[in-house]
Every structure is written in C-alpha cells, then in structure tokens.
Design brief:
The protein is an alpha+beta fold and 300 residues long. The longest helix is centred in the N-terminal third of the chain and has 13 residues. The chain is built from ten helices and twelve strands. The strands form three sheets. It has a five-stranded antiparallel sheet, with helices on one face. A four-stranded mixed sheet has the order 1-7-6-5. The radius of gyration is 26 Å and the shape is globular. It has three domains: 51 residues, no CATH class; 124 residues, CBS-domain (Roll), CATH 3.10.580.10; 80 residues, Uridine Diphospho-n-acetylenolpyruvylglucosamine Reductase, domain 3.
Length: 300
Amino acid sequence: MEDEPPSPDSQDGSWWQRIKQRFCPCEIRSIDQMKSLVRQATETEVFPVSTGGLIDSVLDFHDLRVRDVMVPRGQMDVIEEGTTLPELLSAAIETGHSRYPVIRTNRDEVIGILLVKELLRFYANSQQPGGESTFDLLDLVRTPMFVPESKRLDALLAEFRLTRTHMAIVLDEFGGVAGLVTIEDVLEEIVGDIDDEFDVEERVNIRQQAPRRHTVRALTPIGEFNEVFGTDFSDDEYDTIGGLVSNTLGHLPRRGEVARLGEYEFKVLGADRRRLHLLLVTKLDFETSEDDDGSPAEEK
C-alpha cells in the first residue's frame, strides 16, 4: 500500500514550511520578489513582523559597503603614541570604548589597536608587589586590520569572525584613513541599534550650547525638531532634519556648508560621503525695535 501523504499538521512545524506551502518560493527570481513574499508572510501572520524586518535587513545586507556604516575619520576617538597611563585611563573612562586606534603624528598613521582590557590588566599587575611599573603603550597594542571602504559588509563580517577581530581601520581609494568600523556597526545593520550604558548620551538629539544655538543630530525626526523649536517644517517628504537640510541645498552637504530654513541657520558640523551626522542650529531673528534710549534692542 502506498504511503499516505503527510497531514497538513505535520508540515506546520516551522515558518519556512508554512511559507513554502502558501507562497511557493521556488518561483522567486529576484530580491524584490523575496521581499514581497516576506511582506505577504507578515501580513498573513506566518511569522511576526519583527522576523520579517530581520529578513529584510539580511536581504539588503549584501549590497551594503563599509563606507555605509563606518565611523568617519573626524569622529574617531584615538590615542596618541606618547599618551601616559593616567591619560589613557581617563580617556577610557570618559569615552567608554573598549578599543582605540593608536596613532603617531596624525590619523593617517595608525600603528595599532589598544584593547582596554589589556590596559586594565597592566594597571592591575602594576599595583601588585613586584609588578611591572614601566609603562610602554606599544607593548600593549595589537596589529590593526585595514579594509577598503568599498568592501562588502557580508565579506567583512566573515573576516571579523575568521580573525576574531572586532575593529578595522577603513582606507580610502588613496590609502588614507577614512574612518573605522567595528563588528557592532556591522551587526546593527541587521538587528538595529545596539545600545549600552555608554550610548545614553547619543540618544540626546538636541543639545543647547547657548541661548540661541543648539547642536542637532542629523537623524533627529522633523516632528521632534518642530516640538522643541516651535517650527512647522513638513515631514511629508523627509523624516529627519538632515534630509530636510540636504534637500534645501540640493546635494549631500559637506562639513562647513550652511543652509537657511525660516528663522534658522543650519551649519554642517559633521558629515561623510554618505550622510550627515551633526548640525549647528542658530536662530537668526532678533528684535528690530529700539529701547527707550534709542539703542537697538538686544537679541532675544
């Protein structure tokens, strides 16, 4: 007697089996078709929306390059070769990183990577009776990994895992240092932002520097900006204040460029080839009426 066909219940053991039953992925010929399939699967509750988001991120992951996620050169926290042990400990406490590029005279001369745990191990040993007391930073640094900014993220992740490395120095097409990238930067493209106790400050999008001057992260939602500044910028086309500034200038701004929107001036403090990072926002309007003594009124 022929075997009985498997019951529907026996094929319902995993989301992949259910998605094969419903949507026949054997006909998929492109990434867009796969994404459409994932959307249908989430809409029909084959698997949760969070799972669909992860699959979308993985499908996009192959097209991402190191330049898309790296920390730009100007925003790198680095350690200079002649830094003393107390200065190193102070810097580690202040910035909260676990690894630092070590440089000589400028950021194009990266000579190694310092792991804070190695620094703490040396410090602990130096406090013991008979422990080593002569500190030489170069004895603690590790050989840096260098990668081109055009390297694909999936290839970099594989290299990180193979070499058990967590940080790489990114080089531009001319061999200069363009920035750095960590394994956390890579994984965040799949799972989203990974915050720890040292990332709390990064979530502060708007910070007042003076009565009429603020620094604003480019990723600040336009709605949040409007709420803080009492503006009414539209978020129909752009979600972030950085997108609005880029649209106003007609191109991706470079550091130092200035745009004016309404009563506010936006100066680019941080940017790389792919995105804006930080803006200086200054309110421009002021009282034009005169005081009783005839002198111009002070700014609000």
